[in-house]
Write the structure tokens for this entry.
Amino acid sequence: MSSEVIYICDVCGEAEAAWDGLMYDVDMYCCSNGHYFHENEAMYDVSNDPAQVVIDAGIELAGDEDDSDLAEILIDLRCEMPPSTCQVCQMEIIRTDDLLMFATIEMNTTAQNLVARFKNRFETFEDFKQWRETNFGKYTGHPISEVSN
């Protein structure tokens, strides 16, 4: 019996549906820290440098591996890619939830306190939107893209 699994990309925010949970079917990877990303969003072209991925993953090579051996290892690594391949791990992309966690710790507060402050300051989303546009200009994109390099 087949089942559908949804993967949400930590780089672009897009959701991909995979039957039987096969990431290979939706051209995605997951790094060893649990970040999901599309193959074309890896820090470098994994298919052009599979040996580097294997080395970065800490797997020792005997030296006599051919392309098919490396391809097989990459299939096994699809859900455990090394952090060197991941934009989130390399701080190229800052996830909103990580930024919120950092802000709450830096401000010595909690997410619940920030929510309460937010609700006390703005009665409606339109109030927030007007404040945001007054202070930061017109909102034009996904929050992840606005806070990342």
Remarks:
- The mean pLDDT is 87.
- The chain has two domains: 4-85, 96-147.
- Helices lie at 50-56, 67-77, 96-106, 111-121, 125-136, 143-147.
